[in-house]
Write a structure and sequence with these properties.
Shape: globular
Number of helices: 10
Distance between the termini: 26 Å
Order of helices and strands: EHEHEEHHEEHEHEEHEEEEEEEEHHEEEH
CATH class of one domain: Alpha Beta
Structural class: alpha+beta
CATH topology of one domain: FAD/NAD(P)-binding domain
CATH architecture of one domain: 3-Layer(bba) Sandwich
Strand content: 25-35%
Radius of gyration: 21 Å
CATH superfamily of one domain: FAD/NAD(P)-binding domain
Largest sheet: 9 strands, mixed
Length: about 400
């Protein structure tokens, strides 16, 4: 599946920073990770640190799936608001899911520091009401987050305008968030102890056989990989494997500005997103640009998705200019990507009964990066024969 199109900014900016070989031999390993995007890269990082022998394989060049199209906002907020999620799965589980995302952001900060990766910045996040009718639910959300222990502040219309320079009926300011570059972080993670765990790209897998004692993979070049376990970190491309629908595929759009003279856009350049459905989201970059995303559509096929890029880009620019008319947004690159929504906004992590010796790291939704880190932690523990307290929360058996 073609997961992105247009001109993703990160791919233009960073190109192909590292080269990886194709697989031209038969191999045996303890674990094979299928997918070398951000999910597979984090998975590999955890397995290497746990001393588990593994290799990583991808059909594309590294990072050229959803990872290079990611706008890389890191938020503890899940696509389903906390007060709604509490009604769906119970308050305790809902709070735990939100806290897992918060933990993941903090952990990613530590990992990027260890990797000496400088494109990670902790950021406050402003969640604002798109319409007056959204204010009652925004207040519910504020109370739910406050009760859960998050550092949040409720702002009325005057406070939003005074502090951030745009009009909104109300907002929640959170002290939990970050932004990064998922594409370059993927590459950086895959350089970690690269001699200990090989990575092969441009190596399509045409067949996977699940047996009682392990798995066998056949490549397009007719080479064989034998492993005790397989981890599917291919995201939306595995959805057709399951005998039940677990996710709705969506197309999202993004546009990034030309460089400004300075980076004083709004207060602290916080992450911005709103209550609209689909929601609008904004962030800045280290090289003085503004990125705007949203205008999601149901995904039908890449051709229909791509045909909308020009139209959606204009709409996103207009959306931004309504908020900040004085900033004169001049678009430079625009692109589209595919992502998935689950009913509860949570990922699917762990084993699935019909596929022996397999684990899945499927970080669906707007929290794909933080969910990927949770998947890496949970699956690593399972491979070590240990329990993880959050495994059931994200399991296939929860629904």
């Amino acid at each position: 599946m073609n997961l992105q199109s247009g001109y993703p900014f990160w791919l233009i900016k960073d190109g192909l920073p590292y080269s990886f070989p194709k697989l031209y031999q038969d191999l045996e390993t303890e674990v094979v990770i299928l997918g070398a995007g951000i999910s597979g890269a984090l998975m590999r990082y955890y397995l290497v640190n746990a001393g588990i022998n593994c290799i990583t394989v991808d059909s594309r060049s590294v990072g050229l799936g959803s990872s290079c199209a990611s706008t890389s906002l890191l938020q503890y907020e899940i696509d389903v608001p906390l007060w709604e999620l509490s009604a769906m799965i119970g308050e305790e589980k809902a709070q735990r899911a939100y806290k897992c995302c918060d933990y993941a952001i903090e952990k990613l900060g530590k990992i990027t520091k260890k990797l000496d990766f400088d494109e990670f910045k902790f950021k406050d996040s402003l969640f604002y009401a798109a319409y007056k009718k959204d204010v009652p639910n925004l207040k519910k959300e504020f109370e739910a987050r406050k009760k859960a222990g998050f550092k949040v502040e409720y702002l009325n219309e005057n406070q939003v305008t005074t502090a951030f320079g745009f009009a909104a009926p109300a907002a929640i300011l959170s002290r939990h968030g970050a932004q990064t570059n998922a594409y370059m972080l993927t590459h950086k993670l895959l350089q970690y102890k690269k001699s200990q765990a090989a990575v092969y790209d441009r190596t399509p897998i045409v067949k996977v056989s699940h047996q009682s004692q392990g798995v066998t993979l056949q490549t397009e070049g007719n080479y064989t990989i034998k492993a005790k376990k397989i981890i599917y970190a291919t995201g939306y491309e595995v959805t057709e494997m399951f005998d039940k629908k677990i996710v709705d595929l969506k197309s999202t759009y993004a546009v990034i500005s030309d460089q400004y003279e300075d980076d004083r856009f709004w207060k602290n350049n916080v992450l911005l997103w709103n209550t609209a459905n689909p929601y609008l989201y904004l962030r800045t970059t280290d090289d003085r640009r503004i990125l705007v995303g949203g205008r999601d559509e149901d995904f039908y096929n890449p051709k229909k998705r791509d045909a909308l890029i020009a139209k959606k880009s204009k709409q996103l620019v207009n959306d931004f200019n309504k908020l900040f008319p004085k900033l004169n947004f001049k678009p430079e690159f625009s692109w589209a990507g595919t992502f998935g929504e689950t009913k509860d906004g949570l990922p699917y992590i762990g084993a699935y009964d019909k596929f022996p010796n397999a684990y899945f790291a499927l970080g669906f939704g707007g929290n794909g990066i933080t969910f990927s880190l949770m998947a890496a932690e949970i699956i690593t523990q399972l491979l070590l024969g240990k329990q993880h307290k959050d495994a059931e929360l994200f399991s296939f058996n929860r629904t």
